[in-house]
Write the structure tokens for this entry.
Amino acid sequence: MTTIERSTWTTKVGLARMLAGGVIMDVVTADQAKIAEEAGAVAVMALERVPSDIRKFGGVARMSDPKLITEIMQSTTIPVMAKCRIGHFAEAQILESLGVDYIDESEVLTPADEEHHIDKHAFNVPFVCGCRDLGEALRRIGEGAAMIRTKGEAGTGDIVEAVRHMRAVQKGIRQLQTMRPDELFAAAKELRAPYDAVKQTAELGELPVPNFSAGGVATPADASLMRQLGAQAVFVGSGIFKSSDPERYAMAIVKAATHYDNAEILAEVSAGLGEPMQSTALGDIPPEERLAVRGW
Amino acid sequence: MTDDPRRPRIGVLAVQGAVRPHVEAIRAVGGEPIEVRLPRDLVDLDALILPGGESTTMRKLIDAYGLREPIASLARGGTPLLGTCAGMILLAERIADGDEPVFPLLDLEVRRNGYGRQLDSFEADLDVPALGEAPLHGVFIRAPFVTDVGPRAEVLARDPDGTPVAVRQGRILATAFHPELTDDTRLHRLLLEMVGRGAGHPA
């Protein structure tokens, strides 16, 4: 009899590969999850509050109520992700027991540990983690993240940080590719990242796991920009359900993620869309209130 | 394959999903990969692959950009097709629990995510006599579960519990798993071998 192996590294990274070219949408109710699925989302992120409301609300942001997550899981047939706090492995254990399809160890929630991220290899459920540069991406992969997303600045509708982080990762990869093999040891030291992940990235010319973009996508053009800069898929948080017409925005961003290099289609889906989410320019957010700096 | 020195042009439906692993597999077996997002991309294809991804998303984008009829017509004209995971769902004549079929071309019924959620995703070696003696390694990710295979389709492989996971009907191949996520290119080779076997209609 052939043996079956569950929750392998290949199946974890494999699910991320299946989401390529798609849009993962934040939803706070089962009804929103249905709207997202109907619009063509490849997955939803189940949350109590989208990042722009987390900002407004202040205080400590935690894992969402398991009851809400379960309701959302029952309402849709596409994969459901949920967020836990950085380092909060107990929240992750709870989310795994619910059977979510991916856990986002997320800087959008208030960190629970200022030194250690979760040992993600210890879990059967796959994890996605945020990063601002190549070193941070490779540290998370070393800890077992099967998908990376650049952080951007969540809840702002300002794409500038997402661009900065994606460019930083891509530039870091290009720099590794110019190095002699014996220079990669020092590069690993400088990046503060595991040597094996550094070497693999240099050989592949890309991260060893899929790299998506998050934090600040508010329009179809934003989704196209991030795809053209190298994101294989995009997370959209507040950008859909805080816009003036969530159904249309959702569908337009889905089409933009697919036809990201076709300006005619992008013009067509952007036309007459109505108001995007209420946005905040990055420069208007005091440094101590920025989310992307959380995580180490 | 034909005497034509030209490399066979193998399309990959690229509206969403794991397109790149198929593109790499096509290159590995000597084909020329073509990413298909619009009907104009279907011109002069020798074969077409429907990849894994989210079938609900792919269905919306297929319809939004008018790909349904041209792809069905390619298949009716005898162009070989391979569907993996979501691609198998798109090809099935019957989908359990009510979803409308997309290209009803394969005499089988599938249930979406029938093996369960991500925590039930798995790998297993499969016997596929049509591909030779060595087992094919199957990667199943939120895979569709084949609940019934009709008389027009032939089962090529079964999972360790005996459920069909690979089928062939005329020039259409479909798998519940992801051959593109391994280095084994025998299924892609089989697709290429179907190219240029003369005009004809699938069974």
